[in-house]
Amino acid sequence: MEHDRRFWEQSFDRLENYLRALQRRGEMAARTAAVIMTEERELVITRVFDAPRSLVFKVWTAPEHLARWWGPKGFTTVSCAMDLRPGGAWFRRMRSPEGSLHTKRGIYREIVAPERLVFTYADEDEDGELGPETLVTVTFEEHGAKTRLTLRQSGFETVTARDGHYGGWTSCMERFAEYLATL
DSSP class of residue 158? Predict the structure, then answer.
């Protein structure tokens, strides 16, 4: 648990510095369309990407793409597996810049290509024990030639847990946008 706490504290510090830099440059509105913390235990992030919906969905659902952008900035994906079907499992292991491993896993509940993904999400500790499970719903909407992606994560046990995921997902979305721009 201590390494998770350090990870999120460092993520928040990096996010805070990044957001300050964006605000100074006036880019904040252009980056993230909306971040809404609804109720106490739900996180909603909406962002528009400059790519067609079919490509955005593909990059979210193909392991060879996902391994290149998943996780906060500075993290590398060392293992990625996806059984992309309702009831299929997904697994990701990332290495932090400090060298610690972070494992995430879940089960796909719903897949409606290229419109919607619904999956469970849980951290796995060093002993293989799963932490609290949340539910993630990602929708992909056509927005002209662009795509509006909305990520909704619900079922957090605490507001602190929700806020920790905000930092991770926001950084992850930056990496996603950067990778998408290379395709």
Answer: S
The CA distance from 72 to 74, in Å, is 6
* Residue 43 clears pLDDT 70, i.e. is over it: yes
- pLDDT higher than threshold 50 for residue 64: yes
- The values of phi and psi at residue 175, to 5°, are -65, -40
Question: Angle CA(154)–CA(46)–CA(5) in degrees, nearest 5?
Answer: 50
**In 25-145, where do the E strands start and end?**
34-36, 42-49, 76-82, 89-95, 101-112, 116-124, 134-143
Give 64 or 35, the one with higher predicted confidence: 64
Rounded distance between C-alpha atoms, residue 66 and residue 149, angstroms: 15
Closest listed residue to residue 99, CA positions, set 127, 80, 78:
78
CATH of residue 27's domain is 3.30.530.20
Read off the pTM.
0.79
76, amino acid identity = T
pLDDT band at 5 (very low <50, low <70, confident <90, very high): low
Q: How confident is the model at residue 14 (pLDDT cuts 50, 70, 90)?
A: low
Residue type for position 26: G
pLDDT at position 4, please? Answer: 53
Alpha helices in the chain (DSSP H): 2-25, 28-31, 53-61, 63-69, 159-180
Q: Which domain holds residue 22?
A: 2-180
How many domains, in total, are found in the chain?
1
